[in-house]
Amino acid sequence: MRQVLIAGIGSTPFGRHSEIAIQSLAIRAADAAIRESGIDRKQVGALYLGNFVSGPLTGQEVLAGLVADGLGLGQIPCTKVEGACASGGIAFRHAYLAVASGMCDAALAVGVEKMTHADTATTTAALNCAMDNRSDGISGLTFPGLFGLAWQIHAERYGTSRDQVSAVVSKNKANGLLNPLAQMGANVGADQILQSPLICDPLRLYDCCPTSDGAAALLLVAADKRAELASSPVAVMASAQTRGSARIAGHPDLCTFDATVMAAQAAYAQAGISAKDVDFVELHDCFSIAEIIDTEDLGIVPRGHGGGYALEGRTRVGGDIPVNPSGGLLSKGHPVGATGLGQIYESVLQLRGQHPNQVRDAAIGLTHNLGGTGVACTVNILKRIDA
Amino acid sequence: MRQVLIAGIGSTPFGRHSEIAIQSLAIRAADAAIRESGIDRKQVGALYLGNFVSGPLTGQEVLAGLVADGLGLGQIPCTKVEGACASGGIAFRHAYLAVASGMCDAALAVGVEKMTHADTATTTAALNCAMDNRSDGISGLTFPGLFGLAWQIHAERYGTSRDQVSAVVSKNKANGLLNPLAQMGANVGADQILQSPLICDPLRLYDCCPTSDGAAALLLVAADKRAELASSPVAVMASAQTRGSARIAGHPDLCTFDATVMAAQAAYAQAGISAKDVDFVELHDCFSIAEIIDTEDLGIVPRGHGGGYALEGRTRVGGDIPVNPSGGLLSKGHPVGATGLGQIYESVLQLRGQHPNQVRDAAIGLTHNLGGTGVACTVNILKRIDA
């Protein structure tokens, strides 16, 4: 496998984009990534597009081909990939594999979702496409329901408190205030979070990521193209993808997602590093409690200490291991198919030293994207290239 | 790239499967493919699932993970791929690449669709997700409309007649009678076709493939596993994927799909053969006129002679170049995500000498899967392995 560089990045703000069609949103991000790289678009040999529910919510599929058309790419293989909320991470991994395997010298990963135009019932039904609807779906469970359960078990086993979980919310909302792409950064304290409406006990409104529109894109190239690049590249050390059970009953323990644990182990092995070598993490905080579970599953925080680390400020920028300096899903937003690529976009800015919420001396970053009830997961490890 | 073998095949009948959930249909086909191969399912290192509209029509996504779960596979990367009606072919190509690149030694390609439970308006809206809805969709055009236009142009330019097109229908319907997996084989003559209801001038009911449920699966392995196989393998000589315009206005000529022409050229080059070396073809006859255009685009019939070849019986089993001995989409059915893999399933049977409508001395077969308005295309070339 060849070494792969991220040569260009692009992203729309996450939030509401009522005025623009889903493919145009993706084209906007992808065009920026190509232009920034300095690579001639005719060199792009494959396109992977991460998207989850464009069919039910916009009535538009074949997005990979539509986006390539709009970008003026060649008659290259264009593929939409889907793995629920991990669709973006899966798109990145396939663009990475296309270059690493020598299939082509440049590949584009694009992620997009458009959700804010739909009413809540329609959106909830679409998001529930990520469940096994014959088991969990039929029970009436939704994703807030799943993570509410996970929180209750985590609290009982490890004593995780409302204040600890609120510290995650406060941190990510504050981080979002610094990120011009974020949908809803805010200064919110524990009291304000506690007073927000109950969604699914113990989850309150501020514990849940918003519904979002948005797109993000990365252009990946073989390392031997480095001299041609117009922008400062970042190296891909590892890209891992796993699956876990699609049914909640298939998870013997809701305080952990085995797909995350295995993807992290695979990625650390591929990169030849351990969790302690990572300087910052962008992870899948679809709900506040998810960040606590994810930090433990990724091995960056000891098992059962995710809440404690958050409350002690150890996951803030400036702390032991900054988590979601972008604001994360809670604050930056969660346009599903774009999320995994948005995390990598943020990480590239960190590793270039250009992030609006910069982690000092960031040299190695990790991104984590989780789909459904842990049915699909990707973990990527990225590295600064020192001149 | 390593040599890749098709080690096991599985398929449900195509038709109506009201009693079974979409994931169960896929699991049935995939389990058969694994069992037939003799490969331990723990060796399967990747799963690609082709599907087009499970979101809008069944409310179920994450099918790749669900199917792996049901099959008892490991915690491997599982990815749904979508490229409209070419989704199955795209799944095959990615399973092929996973093995050819050395990423894993065995990979599963599964395709599935469930459509017959939905009413016609819902199904038409779902299928129109394959169009660029801001240009063609908004005009009110549907896929019968597109192929009706293509026929009118083909007829005007090359003199293609109703009788010539009817010869395609009669052949494929008759071939389907011999195929136990086919949804609607029949003995139909030119008069009967002419008397069937007009769908979109000049297309009549018999010119259109049916709506179908079904699944098909292939297990691919590295060539060095040959000694472990329980069934007779077939070699993959080439697997190509291209894109064309998503908008009808992007096609300067509706008598040809450039995605097909380029995929065929790429596949012939990869296999080191030319069109005349192919012994039979399974191609994308979503409408009768499509078979005529496809035979010309693939180079197996001279440009403008597709209709003549059909009427003269040269594309029948026993003719110069048998086309769709399985019955094709017109007669076997078109469960969208499964179609491309079903074509390969049929071709493997031919190359093993086990097809119910056997092409004598079949040594090289070609499959062709086309999505949307030619927005995505795959062409595969398969070869008998002589003992």
What does this molecule look like?
Chain A has helices at residues 22-37, 54-58, 63-71, 87-100, 120-127, 143-158, 162-177, 190-195, 258-271, 288-297, 306-311, 328-332, 336-352, and strands spanning 4-11, 46-50, 78-82, 106-113, 198-200, 203-204, 214-222, 234-243, 280-282, 364-371, 376-384. The longest helix of chain A is centred in the C-terminal third of the chain and has 17 residues, at 336-352. The first copy, chain A, has 13 helices and eleven strands. Helix content of chain A is 37%, strand content 18%. By secondary structure, chain A is of the alpha/beta class. The two termini of chain A are 23 Å apart. In chain A, helix 1 (22-37) crosses helix 3, helix 4 (87-100) packs across helix 13 (336-352) and helix 7 (162-177) crosses helix 10. In chain A, the strands form two sheets. Chain A has a nine-stranded mixed beta sheet, sandwiched between helices. The radius of gyration of chain A is 19 Å and the shape is globular. Chain A has two domains: 4-119 and 211-235, Thiolase/Chalcone synthase (Peroxisomal Thiolase, Chain A, domain 1), CATH 3.40.47; 129-208 and 237-384, Thiolase/Chalcone synthase (Peroxisomal Thiolase, Chain A, domain 1), CATH 3.40.47.10. In chain A, a hairpin with a 4-residue loop joins strand 10 and strand 11. The model of chain A has no long low-confidence stretch (mean pLDDT 97). At the A-B interface, helix 2, helix 3, strand 3, helix 4 and strand 8 of A face helix 2, helix 3, strand 3, helix 4 and strand 8 of B.
